[in-house]
Amino acid sequence: MSLEERELAELKSKIGRDPTSTELQIVAAEWSEHCSYKSSKRHLKMLPMDGPLVINEKGYDSGVLDVGDGYVVTAHIESHNHPSAVEPYGGAATGVGGVIRDILSAGTRPIAIFDGLRFGNIENDLQARWLFKNAVTGIADYGNCLGIPTIGGEVEFDECYENYALVDVAALGFGKKENLIKNHVEEGDVVVLMGGSTGRDGIGGSQFASDSLESEDRSAVQIPDPFIEKLIIEAVLQARSDGLIHAMKDLGGGGLSCAISETADAMEIGIEMDVDKVHTRESDMNPDEIMVSESQERMLIVTSKTKLKKLEEICNKFRIGCSVIGDVNFNNQVHIKKGEKTVANLPADFVANATLLDLPSKEPTYLKTIETEKNFESISDYSKLMMKLLASPNIASKIWVYGQYDHEVGIRTVVKPGADASVLRLDNGKYLSAKIDGNPKQCYINPREGAIGCFEEACRNVVCTGAKPIGMLDHLQFGNPNDPEIFWTFLESLKGLTDFAKSFEIPCVGGKVSLYNETPKGSIKPTPVIGVIGLIEKKPSVPQKISNNDCLLIIGDTKDELGGSEYFEYVHKFVGGKCPSVNFADSKKNMTSVLDIIDKNLIKLAHDCSKGGLAIAVSEICMTNQIGCNVSLDKVPGEKLDVDRILFSESHSRYLISFDNENLSKIQSILNENNVSFAQIGQFGGKKIQFNNGTKSVIDLDVEKAHETWLHALPNLVLHGKKTN
Amino acid sequence: MKVGVVVFPGSNCDRDMYHVLTDVFHLDAEYYWHEKELPANIDAVILPGGFSYGDRLRAGVIAAHSPIIKDVKKMAEKGIPILGVCNGFQILVESGLLPGVLLKNESLNFMCEWTNLIVENNKTPFTNQFKLNDKIPIPIANGEGRYYVDDDTMKELKKKNQIVFRYSEVVNGSANRIAGVCNEAGNVVGMMPHPERAVESDINPVDNKPSSLIFESLLTKMGVSK
User: Fold this and answer.
1) Are A407 and B194 in contact (CB < 8 Å)?
2) Domain range spanning residue A236?
3) Max CA distance (Å), chain B
4) What single DSSP character describes residue A378?
5) Residue A75: which of A398, A528, A534 has the closest Cα?
6) Mind giving me the DSSP string for A267-325?
7) Is A307 part of any domain?
């Protein structure tokens, strides 16, 4: 996709002449949806972005949070969907690289990576399996080489991603507040391009990402080189410590075009650069290619002529390229030359700020009947059904994935992956927890409630570690925005997220919008992915081993809202029903109570109740602790429901907590004081996972057998094509 | 008493190792970039983990030709304690300071998990505080960690007591479950697992004392009082 006619006319009238071919390329890259957010930007402003801990500086590519004692945490999220759908290894790897450089550009050291992966149904779709396997390897090879731990994420499979892939990567950084890059320029400053060489890979990548995926344009996919990225990280951090960086920007979508025009626009300066000064991988690249190449592992740095020598010494130490490609001036023009010849000369603010669109929206017709349920076949054997669910790709253990990621390097990982959320220790004695969550099945049925649910789930995961949510990242992934029905789902999700963020006072510190996610069969389901960052002032809740006679208690009501649940979709092959909705008042009460109980050190473990419902959540505790549990379904608080609905409802705001019997009364009094709905529903012991309804046994599983199935189902399927059930 | 931490392009456990040496064991440690020389009066050298040169060609093989390796070899001859962890072990093997090679794991994947080591040789500068057969809970994180030697060399290793650590169970297909070896003199030790990730109680989910003995052994060897 290049410029639309309307945009071309706008460009011509602004500059009063026909644009050169380089100008066309630059503007097309910068005005692509991917770079300009032209469809979404006017609406994104509704999200609350300020808060007591948020530090806002111009030109940052990542959000910055003050975590006290002179330290900051930075956060960002990106996706690399289109490239990953064509070349999953390189696409996923360069997705990691891009978000890491965003963290770096604030002057902070990247300390954690999270990945959210979505593919088609891997049970029968071999291409989905191939995409999954290679995306995981791509992330592993890149993150491991950088020495940045990948400590969390999620993997989901849904037929709506057939022939496609969603690869979302979030990253956190940490550093001293005084070391943050304060983007500024001085007269006579020079513009330096540092890092890998500019090649013909990723040409037009951002336009490619702003279009429906119709052809497998492999040259639009970037080639990863984590080794160069690692050298850039060390070189940049050293240059930062030596005070050599005036302003810095990562080269991502749109390559030099975007980095140059956005830097000039943000700093209100002009930049004159010469494409001949750019160190290239091939000798005969033309200016257009150089300007829009999305070759990876490159940073744009503005520094003074006097500091340049030291910067060059650092680059030389690490043997990475360092080219002075241009000068700063104050004419607010982006002036690109090839030698003496001008190939583009455009006003920076004009290039960097595409005219925003106000797209029409309309409620999709499918939503009118979506809540109507059909009659389901009755389940004769719940134990058998449970074994099937434990082996299903969305529920089976993801250890095969995170076991390939180095999650220990950096020696900060206190709570390891596999728990609700991982926890990192910080240098000031505090702890950081973070999680990303999405739920396209629910978002399809109700874009607003579904998005709120993702947000709350990420909060719940973080709360289970004892962390208070302090910031949020949103990644909004939808289909073609020119379809008013799709755009409506985008707006609904965004409004829901905004309401939750405002009510819970969790500022949005970063985000990304990815549109045109279309497969040959149509649009993907609305897929907002929400990251929540939590801070622990004292000590995190590290899951402790559960022993015989420990109590199991549930906080929060279980309701008749199974729309988008694994039970409806995987078991009954039914898409529809009522989407779970979050009651903000209950959500707050429950969250505060769990944090209070953890703070008072009363529990051994807290676990969020989500995908697969109560039945799966209890089983997960049992399997990871190798202990049985006896659960009374008739005691579960909430509406009076049939057993299948109690077992598998995915109602939000629910937590399972396990603790020593002697703390029961203290916990009860805290919950009563906060007027929270709760019940002690079970006791641990033995080797059987049992769910009873009154005196009737509903589920009876052998822990060890369940554990084996749950643990090995995914690798069996991915590596050996073996379905467990 | 000074410990040198060698940094190659792509090393990524250097900062972790430095933190453990200085903040946990209060040693005087210094980074040495791979193009620098090691001072003659250095008391121990550690090659940390990571992906030197991006593991191109084969893990450790390019770094084994770095200028500083000449000095490391001199130190090895002088009997100075040298420890290579993970990529550091791969570099020691590739530079010929230790026998054997490290192949791709049997799973063909990168593996990050906690496992247990068994101490087989308690005469080295990094194991002198252990009893034989002591168990060490410790994490591994590598893609090429499967130790291999031919049968004849294996016999020699056993005879000369060069097997320092073995895994308590089959982890990655290593020959004889070997996780760490030393040179004939015993002063150069290489190991795939990461002791620097296991010596602090808040990040070690099992027990941080056994791994700490690796560093306390070095302190003892260097004559530093605890």
Assistant:
1) no
2) 181-353
3) 44
4) P
5) A534
6) HT-EEEEEGGGS-BSSTT--HHHHHH---SSEEEEEE-HHHHHHHHHHHHHTT-EEEEE
7) yes
- How far is it, in rounded angstroms, from Cα A385 to Cα A373? 21
pLDDT band at residue A406 under the 50/70/90 scheme? very high
- Is any Cβ of chain A less than 8 angstroms from the Cβ of B104? no
**A179 touching B (Cβ < 8 Å):** no
pLDDT of residue A573: 96
- B-contacting residues of A 411-430, CB under 8 Å? 411-414, 416, 425
If one counts every other C-beta atom within 10 angstroms of the C-beta of residue B63, the result is 28
- 3 state DSSP class of A65: strand
ipTM: 0.96
- Asked if A626 and A703 touch (Cβ cutoff 8 Å), the reply is yes
CA A291 to chain B, closest CA, distance in angstroms equals 28
Is A138 in the B-facing interface, judged by CB distances under 8 Å?
Answer: no
Note the pLDDT of residue A219. 59
Alpha helices in B81-163 (DSSP H): 87-94, 151-159
Q: What is the DSSP letter of A531?
A: E
Contact A120, A127 (CB under 8 A): yes
Q: Which domain holds residue B52?
A: 2-222
Mean pLDDT of A663-673: 97
Are the beta carbons of B202 and A414 separated by less than 8 Å?
yes
Q: How far is CA A47 from CA A248, A437, A495, A535, A615, in A?
A: 26, 18, 8, 21, 35
Check A414 against B197: CB less than 8 A apart. no
- Number of domains comprising chain A: 2
Q: Do B10 and A145 touch (CB under 8 A)?
A: yes
- Domain total of chain B: 1
Total beta-carbon pairs less than 8 A apart between chain A and chain B:
81
Q: Which residues of chain B have pLDDT under 50?
A: none
Domain's final residue, options A294, A323, A353: A353
Does B43 contact chain A (CB < 8 Å)?
Answer: no
Q: For A221-237, what is each residue's pLDDT tens digit?
A: 778 899 999 999 999 99
pLDDT at res. A1:
46
Cβ-defined contact of A147 to B12 (cutoff 8 Å): yes
How confident is the prediction for chain B on average, in pLDDT? 97
pLDDT of residue A222: 78
With beta carbons under 8 A apart, name residues in chain B contacting A425: 202-203
Whole-model pTM: value is: 0.95
Q: Report if residue A75 sits inside a domain.
A: no
In a domain, A100, yes or no: no
Q: What is the dihedral of CA A646, A652, A653, A658, to 10 degrees?
A: 50
Residue keyed to tokens 């991982």: A422
For A360, counting Cβ atoms within 10 Å of its Cβ (0-12 exposed, 13-18 middle, 19+ buried), the class is exposed
Is the model's pLDDT at A214 over the cut of 70? no
pLDDT in tens, A468-492: 999 999 999 999 999 999 999 999 9
* pLDDT averaged over every residue in chain A: 94
Residue to test with chain B: of A142, A144, A714, A720, most B Cβ within 10 A:
A144
Calpha distance A446→B29 (Å, rounded): 58
Q: Return the pLDDT at A250.
A: 94
Q: Which of residues 219-248 of A touch B (CB under 8 A)?
A: 225-227, 230-231
pLDDT at A211: 62
- Domain closes at, from A333, A353, A373: A353
Structure tokens at A645: 């609905």
What residues of chain A lie within 8 A of the CB of B33, using their CB? Answer: 317
- What CATH code is carried by the domain that includes residue B47? 3.40.50.880
Establish if A372 belongs to a structural domain. Answer: no
**In the predicted structure, residue A215 carries a pLDDT above the cut 80:** no
Q: Over the stretch A47-77, which tens digit does the pLDDT of each residue have?
A: 999 999 999 877 777 899 999 999 999 999 9
